[in-house]
């Protein structure tokens, strides 16, 4: 017994869509489509909004953990594309669940946010005697995108608890270094504020300037090192080697990226269940938890296994170790 | 697994930056509120960088000591959709550090202080943690009004150090009333209404009160909800309200703080309140109040201070600090 993940609740939309359809709509070249190796994703209908998916996944997580909403002490949530900007998504979850005793907060970020959320939860469960159950909710609805992978819609919630008897959190490491900011939305902040004359053609994504030159020179050559380092440090701190890990779960990029990273870590490619990319694409940081649940259900993970997890995004890198 | 340390963690310093330019705004009750205002020549990160450097200077340490940094994401940065905590660390000159951006509606830095302190308590290898916020409302509000509050600009960064015995946060209690999630937000820029040119040109990308009924309802409940957190914090610290020498109250408006003080029969002479002088600065305002606390002549070594933050966003926090 110890601090660990008591349950994983997953809520996915009803519809699955072939990625060939999305690729055609987006004008994605065939060689890139082939390289992504993802053939279908879940895509939400308008009534399956981020909150609905998030609340449903949270209900499943509470039921699986066999705790009531009133027993939740802290709710930490993330939804990059939440219903409104600078809105308390976590407080809405609290209201919908009736988790009246939970303090709530949102963590801002993209795929990286789940790492920061687990960091806070892990600190709080160790430091605060009055906190026993932390509900973590990640929901995202950004389907249609094709970078760095086909983006799927879906939500995942976990209950991180003090007295779990599975998925014990053994070690946790976050790394953020001084790295270049690659994507910048120049207009709309306090430096270049919006005015009535602002030209803003298309969506947010179409207005972001991505510095490909910096990426190629300052990030790409080191990307496997950067992605691997947090897990390697977590192993060092725990006193094991990466080879001792039975399975490694990671945020979905291209399937070849997962396999190359395994090579970089010096372990066989089948240590990571990269085949899930084919049927799901990339949800967000919660790829790690959703595929962990699927791997348990599919019998790819057995009791006592040591599991490595890698979350990254926005130049933040997380590595942590679980014991099933 | 790490073991919790018994080494004390104390507030070492608070770095502060407030703009020199002040403007006056009329409050709904007819009084006038002067607040510091920034513009595009004095950006969010410029203010935050100055506050960060001020905290380092006051603590007499350099950037190599910055190990953990919690940023309150409740105003607008130089650019939208950035990882603000990392961007700010880059500007200050900090390389590797543990950092994240949290959001709790606009008054969250007391919870951020708890996270900073607890991180130091359970991570033996970490000694220094920082909590920062920077408020800049010139371009993303309705003429700086947020309900009955006037939004002021400025930044503050608090530094907590393991081994520092002064200003120890003995206890903490918080409460979220989730029903009030829909009071403050931007209608534009999320899943429901994506950010597009038409909304920008119409000036709709602003943070404001949307559910006025809930806002007014919560104003009536805020003092009681905050009092509940204070009672819990006092209990956890094993002390009583009569032992408190100073009450640091941070809320939307001075009148809400007065309402709270009146309900608990706290004499005015024991209250430290900063909204009257600076307007509502959100999380940065709470940290600014901690800076004022550290130099307040009404307290001395061994005094007890209650810090209470009353958010009109459904979040309430209290902490008992031993000087």
From TrEMBL, chain A:
Q: Which GO terms describe its molecular function?
A: acyltransferase activity
Provide the Beta-ketoacyl-[acyl-carrier-protein] synthase III C-terminal domain boundaries: 235-313
Where does the UniProt annotation place the signal sequence? Answer: none
Give me any GO biological process, just one: secondary metabolite biosynthetic process
Q: What is the lineage of its organism?
A: Bacteria, Bacillati, Bacillota, Bacilli, Bacillales
Q: Which UniProt keywords apply?
A: Acyltransferase, Transferase
Q: Which Pfam families match?
A: ACP_syn_III_C
Organism, as annotated: Mesobacillus campisalis
- The name this protein goes by in its record: Beta-ketoacyl-[acyl-carrier-protein] synthase III C-terminal domain-containing protein
């Amino acid at each position: 017994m110890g601090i660990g993940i008591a349950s994983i609740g997953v809520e996915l939309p009803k519809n699955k869509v072939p990625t060939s359809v999305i690729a055609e709509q987006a004008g994605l070249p065939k060689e890139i489509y082939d390289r992504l190796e993802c053939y279908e994703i879940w895509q939400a209908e308008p009534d399956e909004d981020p909150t609905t998916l998030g609340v449903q996944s949270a209900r499943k997580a509470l039921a699986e953990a066999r705790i009531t909403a009133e027993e939740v002490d802290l709710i930490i949530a993330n939804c990059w594309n939440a219903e409104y900007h600078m809105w308390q998504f976590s407080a809405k979850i609290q209201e919908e669940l009736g988790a009246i005793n939970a303090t709530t907060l949102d963590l801002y970020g993209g795929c990286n946010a789940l790492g920061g959320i687990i960091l806070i939860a892990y600190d709080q469960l160790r430091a605060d005697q009055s906190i026993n159950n932390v509900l973590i909710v990640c929901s995202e609805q950004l389907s249609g995108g094709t970078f760095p992978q086909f983006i799927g819609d879906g939500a995942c919630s976990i209950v991180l608890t003090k007295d779990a008897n599975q998925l014990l959190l053994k070690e946790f490491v976050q790394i953020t270094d001084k790295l270049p900011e690659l994507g910048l939305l120049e207009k709309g902040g306090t430096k270049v504020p919006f005015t009535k004359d602002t030209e803003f053609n298309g969506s947010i994504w179409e207005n972001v300037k991505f510095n490909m030159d910096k990426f190629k020179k300052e990030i790409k050559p080191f990307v496997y090192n950067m992605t691997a380092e947090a897990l390697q440090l977590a192993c060092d701190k725990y006193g094991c080697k990466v080879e001792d890990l039975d399975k490694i779960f990671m945020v979905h990029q291209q399937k070849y990226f997962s396999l190359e990273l395994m090579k970089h870590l010096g372990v066989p490619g089948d240590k990571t269940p990269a085949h899930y990319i084919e049927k799901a694409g990339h949800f967000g940081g919660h790829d790690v938890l959703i595929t962990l649940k699927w791997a348990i259900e599919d019998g790819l993970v057995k009791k006592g296994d040591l599991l490595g997890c890698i979350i990254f995004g926005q130049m933040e890198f997380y590595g942590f170790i679980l014991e099933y | 697994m790490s073991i919790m340390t018994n080494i004390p963690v104390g507030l070492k310093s608070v770095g502060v930056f407030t703009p020199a330019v002040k403007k006056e705004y009329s409050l709904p009750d007819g009084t006038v509120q002067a607040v510091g205002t920034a513009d595009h020549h004095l950006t969010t990160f410029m203010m935050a960088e100055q506050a960060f450097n001020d905290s380092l200077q006051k603590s007499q340490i350099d950037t190599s000591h910055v190990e953990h940094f919690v940023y309150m994401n409740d105003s607008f940065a130089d650019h939208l959709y950035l990882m603000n905590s990392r961007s700010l660390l880059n500007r200050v000159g900090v390389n590797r550090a543990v950092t994240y951006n949290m959001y709790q509606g606009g008054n969250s830095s007391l919870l951020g202080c708890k996270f900073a302190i607890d991180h130091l308590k359970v991570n033996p290898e970490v000694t220094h943690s920082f909590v920062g916020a920077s408020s800049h409302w010139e371009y993303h509000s309705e003429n700086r009004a947020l309900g009955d509050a006037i939004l002021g600009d400025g930044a503050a960064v608090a530094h907590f150090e393991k081994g520092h015995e002064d200003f120890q946060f003995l206890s903490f209690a918080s409460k979220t009333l989730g029903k009030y999630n829909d009071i403050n937000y931007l209608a534009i820029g999320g899943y429901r209404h994506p950010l597009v040119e038409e909304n920008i040109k119409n000036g709709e990308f602003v943070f404001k009160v949307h559910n006025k009924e809930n806002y007014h309802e919560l104003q009536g409940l805020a003092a009681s909800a905050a009092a509940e957190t204070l009672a819990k914090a006092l209990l956890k610290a094993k002390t009583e309200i009569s032992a408190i020498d100073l009450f640091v109250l941070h809320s939307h408006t001075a009148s809400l703080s007065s309402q709270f003080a009146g309900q608990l029969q706290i004499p005015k002479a024991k209250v430290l309140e900063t909204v009257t002088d600076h307007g509502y600065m959100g999380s940065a305002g709470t940290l600014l109040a901690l800076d004022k606390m550290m130099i307040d002549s009404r307290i001395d070594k061994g005094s007890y201070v209650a810090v209470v933050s009353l958010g009109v966003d459904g979040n309430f926090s209290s902490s008992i600090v031993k000087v």
